[in-house]
Amino acid sequence: MSRSVVNAMTIDVEDYFHVSVFDGLVPRHAWDGMESRVCANTERLLEIFDEANLQATFFVLGWVADRFPHLVRSIAEQGHEIASHGYGHRLVYDLTPRAFRQDVRRAKALLEDTTGLRVHGYRAPSYSVTPKSLWALDVLIAEGYTYDASIFPIHHDRYGIPISPRQPYVLQRKRRLVEAPGSTVRCGPFNLPIGGGGYFRILPYAWTRWGINRLNEHEQRPAIFYLHPWEIDPDQPRLRAPALGRFRHYFNLNRTEERLRALIRDFRFGTMLTLLDEQFTTSAEPAVGPLPYVWSAP
Ligand SMILES: [Zn+2]
Question: What separation in Å is there between the alpha carbon of 217 and the centre of ligand 1?
């Protein structure tokens, strides 16, 4: 496998009952009463990364940081990048610009106060920056974020901008914002996701290995990989969800840790910030109009 390119390892730090697949099953007011497993699962990931001498980016949910500040400090103390997954795990296109602004502001301030370090990056719950919610990018700039990782260039029932660029790009708005899309390989007219989450867990590992190797070798580009702490926790409580949601959430939980270990043996990984810094030094020319839409800032 390719060892020439450093890919980005990213973790969305949230609990099993936060995921959008289960929206409505566990109402927000009940979150505090649920058995939380996010600390133990994240600490397990930290051990795996420590053994491999790997630095990753953790997009931490503000709700988690509020309850478990020691977890956030521990991630940062081990040299990983802390980024923001917003505060309340609400889909961006379900929010008003004003509510979104409050959510990302609250999360950034909390994470920065907890660690004493600047937060640069944001990833929306369920990649919910879509053609309906591009205004969110202007809000992120206004709130001091320098990169976003919320646009997946694929067709999906809940998210995605299939005609958006497949590789990181610069959006020149009031100020610049780097967009770091989820990784795909091009297959005929389609972009197929190869960068983690359910695709990593549900499809055979050979799919991810082939896809990242193809990006690294064929396109000489890094991949951006993502995973959640609950994905390595086969013992998590089972929630009563519709069948498709149950399949997406529970399938192969018992094999994911072993796969993750194989992945980080097969490829090199670092933080998102390092990857983007290397690609976009200050002199880099911004790609003009990389998103084929016109929108105004809120
Ligand atoms: Zn999430």
Answer: 30
